[in-house]
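During the second year of the project, the team shifted from modelling isolated chains to modelling whole assemblies. The rationale, set out in the original proposal, was that interfaces cannot be judged from single-chain predictions alone. As a representative example for this report, we include one of the complexes processed in the last quarter. Its constituent sequences, exactly as entered into the pipeline, are reproduced here:
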Amino acid sequence: MGVLKLTREKVQNVDLINRISGQNVYDCYQCGRCTSGCPSADEMDIVPSQTMKFLQIGEVDRVVESNTPWVCLACLICSVRCPKGIDIAAIMEALRLVKLRNNYDFVHPNRIPQEDLEELPPIALVSAFRKMTP
Amino acid sequence: MTVKIPYYPGCTLKATAKNFEDTARLVAGVFDYELDDLYRWNCCGAVYGLSEDNVMHKVAPVRNLLRVKEVGEKRVLTLCSMCFNTLKRANYYVRKNKDKLEVINAIMYLENTTYDGSVEVIHLLELLRDEIGFDKVKKAVKKPLSGITVASYYGCLLLRPNEIAIDNMEQPTVMEDLMEALGASVIDLNVKTECCGAYQTVPRKDLVADRTNLIVEEARKAGADLIITSCPLCHFNLDRRQKEAKERHPDFHPMPILYFTQLMALAFGFEEEKLGFKPHYVDPRPLLKERGLL
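Output from the structure prediction step:
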């Protein structure tokens, strides 16, 4: 395993996540409470508490390219239970936004099957588009 | 005398959750309240924007609050949990961050007035508990719901974050208390504040079907006959995704999912046609007939 190096570029990437989310990833002390309550943790490549650690060591790309922000439900359990008061859901949002702001579509409105469009309520489509399209 | 209360419907209450709106109007009418649709309301965006560096996602909810102020009202009532959360959080945000409020007002420069944070956002459950009171609810019951056991499912957005919660964030009881006032038996659902899968119902039906399976099975194990909710997205996921839940989990048994207002209207003696059971994927009528409530 190589020696971890916190380069200037990596620090800038972490700063970007902090700026978009309004949080400070260095506040996390790895208690794991976010992960223990997360209903999506089983589905995640990198669970929420690991995500925080990766961000602290500058591995932003690794979490941005994981499925983690895209299976997050923005249910806010992690945020309200964090003993350090970190809004982890906002950090997940920032991880989505760094891709969405580069015109990335996780959900493609024109690829949703017609039968789904006919049964999905407006609330499902609006919220999915808000979270998963630019 | 009838009290007119400004009401923000939101997109889904005028579409797939029309039965929620219709039964809420009936229920409010019993206590002499009239839900008065907000003039020129727009979609709130369904989810609150969590980013700190961009206020654009907060403009839509704040514009609705401005509409309330514009017609000279002090509060606005919501039914949908997601609308409630989005409007109340945006309101909390602009009250705390006057500089951001200025930016949002500047974006809405074509409006005739500016917003100042003065409007209160309330949910129907709060109106019932705090203003009408469950004693009055109890007195209005014509057909007690004895014979059914109800699991109350809160989901996320009535309770989180704590600044906007209508009840204890981890151990809410407002819906259980309401159901007891209607004469129903209640159980304490251990997953009542756990997410149903929310907007993942669009790209990840499987994930939502597994959440539905878990929540319905936990309710069944605790002895519930049906589940109540106040969110049209929770309702869709818990009701309609039972199809996929059954495909993925052969042992899964269907359970009816109702809006709390449907059970209230039933207990207040409104006839079956007004309760809006037709659009349900899992039809609650056989259960309610078997228990002598229809």
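The radius of gyration of chain A is 16 Å. Chain A has a mean pLDDT of 95.
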